[in-house]
Design a protein that fits this description.
Blueprint (H helix, E strand, L loop, with lengths): L1 H10 L2 E3 L1 H13 L4 H6 L1 H6 L2 H12 L10 E5 L7 H10 L5 E7 L3 H8 L6 E6 L1 E3 L6 E3 L1
Parallel strand pairs: 1-2, 2-3, 3-4
Antiparallel strand pairs: 5-6
Helix pairs in contact: 2-5, 6-7
Length: 142
């Protein structure tokens, strides 16, 4: 079984993190009723850090960010699943990427420069992480 999973991760050309993040977020919403118990228990609180679960899932599905043959990458999440440097590294390693969708992530010049270096990119969807500016109530891009 381990060999089959390893082979799949090495040869898969599409990575869509949407279903994974939705599953993790659904688990979080189910646990809202137990949140007080979870936060007061040191063992449970470590297990229920969903942002960390997304990061672990991302590292697993990208073989610790060593995948080099992706044609399509989709990252959509209400919480980050990887830091900016990790995402940039993954994009740099996959020069043949044709489709890239990044939603709810901080967009920086360095990330945009890495994306602009993809010679075969045919589809690009970028949506920055928006947060409400509490000082004047105006939406601002993070």
């Amino acid at each position: 079984m381990r060999t089959a999973v390893s082979f799949y991760l090495q040869t898969n050309k599409n990575l869509d993190m949407t279903a994974v993040t939705l599953w993790i977020e659904n688990e979080e919403s189910r646990d809202l009723d137990r949140m007080e118990e979870i936060l007061n228990d040191p063992i449970l609180s470590r297990e229920y850090v969903y942002c960390d679960r997304k990061k672990v899932a991302f590292k697993f599905l990208t073989r610790n960010v060593t995948v080099t043959h992706l044609k399509k990458l989709t990252m959509t999440s209400s919480w980050p699943m990887a830091n900016l440097n990790t995402v940039q590294k993954l994009i740099k390693q996959n020069k043949d990427m044709e489709e890239l969708s990044i939603v709810n992530m901080k967009l920086t010049n360095s990330l945009l420069n890495v994306i602009s270096e993809l010679p075969k990119l045919k589809y690009l969807k970028l949506s920055p992480n928006l947060r409400e500016n509490k000082v004047n109530g105006v939406w601002s891009v993070e």
